[in-house]
């Protein structure tokens, strides 16, 4: 099975990849919804990522900024799985790298920003909810350390949040369109480390299959797309991805 997948990857010059939390667990980043997930163990934590609550309650915002400041994910490093996907781009075969993750590790590993499509945004940028001004997380953390517990937009005074999609928020249309196109025009679609239960990740698989791409699911647990996949790979991502892309030149 893996030999066949390796052949498909070698034969393709238009590969689109979709990644979920499973690719980042080797970097020490917890899965939010798994058995050991943050929200599974502390349901109260989920309130911090509800958009309405965040906008309405300054205390929630102050707690959120402290969590962002103390979040170990800020210092996480890419792992062998991320680096394997860089090889696909270096070989000139990557059409798009769609991710559900907000940890920025694909770009940090070496994939280019033009190829990476962050469905749920990034935790390293901050957006004003009123005027849309964009700043970096580091700039805002510096303001917190200087005594502003809930730093407002310096342009308009609006409430700021990280540029991630919270519960109750729509995904950005432009980002979704890029993802759909990348799924539609590839000939191999690799779905890696995603349970494929959250939209739009799931329907992107359907788009790829309907457009005639080979679908490869790489995930430890079963997904709703295993039945229509051309191959299902269960081995640990950090071990199997380097094997699957070996010899790409
Ligand atoms: Zn503003």
Structural write-up:
This protein is α/β, with parallel strands linked by helices. The chain has 2 domains: 1-29 and 78-120 and 170-249, Rossmann fold; 34-75 and 123-164, SIR2/SIRT2 'Small Domain' (2-Layer Sandwich), CATH 3.30.1600. Helices cover 35% and strands 17% of the residues. It has 10 helices and 9 strands. The chain has helices at 2-11, 38-41, 51-56, 58-70, 80-90, 105-109, 137-145, 173-184, 201-210, 237-244; strands at residues 15-19, 94-99, 116-118, 121-128, 134-136, 160-164, 188-192, 214-218, 231-233. The strands form 2 sheets. The chain has a 6-stranded parallel beta sheet, sandwiched between helices. A 3-stranded antiparallel beta sheet has the order 5-4-6. Helix 9 links the parallel strand 7 (188-192) and strand 8. Helix 8 runs parallel beside helix 9 (201-210). It is elongated. The two termini are 22 Å apart. The mean pLDDT is 92. The protein binds zinc ion.
Topology:
Blueprint: H1 2-11, E1 15-19, H2 38-41, H3 51-56, H4 58-70, H5 80-90, E2 94-99, H6 105-109, E3 116-118, E4 121-128, E5 134-136, H7 137-145, E6 160-164, H8 173-184, E7 188-192, H9 201-210, E8 214-218, E9 231-233, H10 237-244
Parallel strand pairs: 1-2, 1-7, 2-3, 7-8, 8-9
Antiparallel strand pairs: 4-5, 4-6
Helix pairs in contact: 5-10, 8-9
The structure holds zinc ion.
